[in-house]
TrEMBL record:
The keyword Cell wall biogenesis/degradation applies. The active site is at H315, C333. It comes from Pseudonocardia thermophila. It comes from the Bacteria. CDD domains: LDT_IgD_like_2 (cd13432), YkuD_like (cd16913). GO terms for molecular function: acyltransferase activity; peptidoglycan L,D-transpeptidase activity. This is Lipoprotein-anchoring transpeptidase ErfK/SrfK.
Length: 387
């Protein structure tokens, strides 16, 4: 019986509610069974912090336990992506934060005994010093030509072009190889164009998504809003403008549909040569006033289709009718008869290519607006901030 008592252990509850182990051989207490320490959570930035730099590290770390699950959510919805360490002791945010936003923690932690408690807290990022707006050149539902670039024009300089470009997405109903390219700032604002390697396939559906709201443009500037557009590439219409032929030919979906007598820029004056290269239709006017102090003219022409920003149009000019089809006498425009100019005008879409050949002066950036196709594809790709 004595031997049995020596090995028998009993639990006696002490005055403080702590359990003690004793032995029957003398009641000497052994080590108490203390509860596990509470799990400690460290928020970075601290709970309730304000004016937080959106680029600063964001994390949660625990001791005396582990993270079961964690979510960081912005006040406009959407969870921030993050990575949990294999031991469950640390979670770090991976996704970018927005300026002027409040972020809220939620989730669960667990102590060493398996008891769980909620994560809770929040912080607010600092407001941006400047909000930059962007504008897409092609609106929803439009039908455009096969050489139309997609352009986003910003109203201020963009310093972190790579951050912007990572927020841009183009999807197409037909396979298209293309790239974004940053053009020199114009009017105080940055601009970026997307063009395919070759002309767009005819009848392609295009969707543009520019998720720019809150994107850090650098220098404290952020994107103002997201931009989207869904549009259609129309029929494949190409103007073939060989100045030495004195003709203007229009090819539509592989078939010739127009062949008009034309007069191009005066051969003997380099300043009046029609520029060689791929021009792109950008505007149309039923009546367009044209003024030149240098050449002393001020006229209004009919059925004017702009093909560059250096003053080149395809338009009607009855005064050059005798030269159309036989000589080049214009100030750089493509002159047609009134009837032929109207026929072409009615067919032209924004983004149609006009391929001018046969002159020693090449179209280039100084001619303004849509000069994307004057850049070789290998060079165009280097104009992306991600290459």
């Amino acid at each position: 019986m004595r031997r049995l008592l020596l090995v028998l252990a009993v639990l006696i509850v002490g005055a403080g509610g702590i359990l003690f182990a004793t032995t029957a051989s003398g009641g000497v207490p052994l080590a108490p069974f203390a509860p596990p320490p509470p799990v400690q959570v460290v928020y970075e930035p601290a709970d309730g912090a304000t004016d937080v730099d959106p680029k600063a590290p964001v994390s949660i770390a625990v001791t005396d336990g582990r993270i079961v699950e964690v979510t960081l959510t912005g006040d406009k919805g959407g969870e921030i992506e993050g990575t949990l360490s294999p031991d469950g002791l640390r979670w770090e945010a991976q996704g970018p934060l927005r300026y002027g936003a409040t972020y809220t923690w939620s989730g669960t932690v667990e102590d060493t005994a398996g008891t769980r408690s909620p994560l809770q807290g929040s912080f607010t990022t600092k407001k941006p010093t400047k909000v930059v707006r962007g504008t897409l050149n092609i609106g929803d539902g439009r039908t455009v030509g096969i050489a139309a670039p997609i352009r986003i024009q910003f109203n201020a300089h963009v310093a972190d072009k790579a951050a912007v470009e990572r927020a841009l997405k183009v999807t197409t109903s037909k396979p298209v190889e293309g790239s974004w390219g940053w053009l020199p700032d114009e009017g105080g604002g940055s601009r970026v164009d997307f063009r395919p390697k070759e002309y767009w396939p005819a009848y392609t559906e295009v969707r543009v998504e520019a998720n720019l709201e809150g994107v850090d443009y650098g220098g404290g500037a952020v994107g103002a809003a997201n931009l989207t557009s869904s549009f259609t590439i129309g029929r494949a219409q190409i103007v073939k403008a060989d100045v030495n032929s004195y003709r203007m030919i229009v090819i539509r979906d592989g078939k010739q549909v127009m062949d008009f007598p034309a007069s191009y820029g005066l051969d003997s004056d380099p300043e009046r040569n029609t520029r060689s290269g791929i021009h792109v239709v950008s505007e149309k006017f039923t009546d367009k006033r044209m003024v030149s102090e240098r050449y002393d003219y001020d006229v209004v022409v009919k059925w004017a289709v702009r093909i560059s920003n250096n003053g080149e149009f395809i338009h009607a000019n009855p005064d050059s009718l005798a030269a159309q089809g036989s000589s080049n006498v214009t100030h750089g425009c493509v002159n047609l008869s009134v009837e032929n100019a109207k026929t072409y005008y009615d067919s032209a879409l924004y983004g149609d290519p006009v391929e001018v050949t046969g002159t020693p002066i090449q179209l280039g950036p100084r001619d303004g607006d849509i000069w994307d196709w004057t850049v070789p594809w290998s060079q165009w790709k280097t104009m992306s901030a991600l290459n």
